[in-house]
């Protein structure tokens, strides 16, 4: 069903309201039969998008309310979260920063609601990767991350005015000989990196970016 403006060829053009066969509805601007311009799209499952469209795709600036209560407000390119935007997750965590192909990608800040801690730094395909700072209530960690875990040189900076320098080392997986046969198919679990302290100092200007 459609009620609204049409062009000379009878296609939806201008402002209109439509109900789609699947029960979704759209109210907004059209260009020659396609959603283009500003509009609001309500999904039957309770989700809602309000923002810019280009040829039926979310493109430009827009806000998406997901059925689980989470919400994204920011840039879109061809139906993907891409550019800069803020995501409020269902558990109350937030991410503010750069996106590509629907994933956190580039520079961004992720705030953990439960602890108040925040990760400020680089992301690659949704995963913490690259130079970053992990800020807690009374101390912070500066270093580099790889696949979501800290790895290599870094330092903990304490609010009382001192620093602990060291590095995160990836422990080596030790295989138990007798269990070899039965566990062949199971990949070894990645072990948590271990922090090794090298020295305690007064505050220094070192940052993970210095090594690039």
Describe this entry's structure for a reader.
- With 212 residues, the chain is mainly β.
- The chain has 2 domains: 1-67, Histone H3 K4-specific methyltransferase SET7/9 N-terminal domain; 91-178 and 192-202, Single Sheet (Histone H3 K4-specific methyltransferase SET7/9 N-terminal domain), CATH 2.20.110.
- The chain has strands spanning 2-6, 12-19, 25-31, 34-42, 48-54, 57-65, 71-77, 80-88, 94-100, 103-111, 118-124, 127-135, 139-146, 149-158, 162-169, 194-202.
- The chain is 0% helix and 60% strand.
- The protein has a 16-stranded antiparallel beta sheet with strand order 1-2-3-4-5-6-7-8-9-10-11-12-13-14-15-16, with no helix packed on it.
- The model has no long low-confidence stretch (mean pLDDT 93).
- A hairpin with a 5-residue loop joins strand 1 (2-6) and strand 2 (12-19).
- It contains no helices and 16 strands.
Main pleated sheet: 16 strands, antiparallel
Rg, Cα atoms, Å = 24 Å
The sequence of SSEs as H and E is: EEEEEEEEEEEEEEEE
In the CATH classification, which architecture of the largest domain applies? Answer: Single Sheet
The shape is elongated
Low-confidence runs: none
Subcellular location: Cytoplasm, Cytoskeleton, Flagellum axoneme
Protein name: Radial spoke head 1 homolog
Region (Disordered): 1-30
Keywords: Cell projection, Cilium, Cytoplasm, Cytoskeleton, Flagellum, Meiosis, Repeat
